[in-house]
Amino acid sequence: MLFDPSTPYGARVERRLSQEQVIWLTTVSHDGTPQPNPVWFQWDGETIVIYSMPSAAKVHNIRRSPRVALHFDSGESGEDVVVITGTAVLDETAPPAHSNPAYLAKYRVGITNIEMTPESMSAAYNAAIRVKPDRVRGF
Fold it and tell me: Low-confidence residues of the chain, pLDDT below 70?
């Protein structure tokens, strides 16, 4: 396990991975420029699943360079820092978003708020990115 949920920091990491709505995914463009993007995600206890439009720059960046970083907003005073690094893959075996019960439960209201149905969201955001974290740091 990358973090110990029995510690105060590890418990905070687990809570944020389980409850936060948005995480920032940073990929690297062809010229080496970091490209942070806020994304919806689902933590399954081992990996982070993100659904994307297949034509998005982040998908092209991951194909070229699979090393990524993720982080949450740190709070008003920078008091809650969680940074995760890992390797991303395009997971063609992942279920579509509308067939992922945990993802759908988490984002059903958000999907409605962007005037989509789970099925139309799955059709548009049909590239599943799976990140395997290898390091968690912060305070």
Answer: none
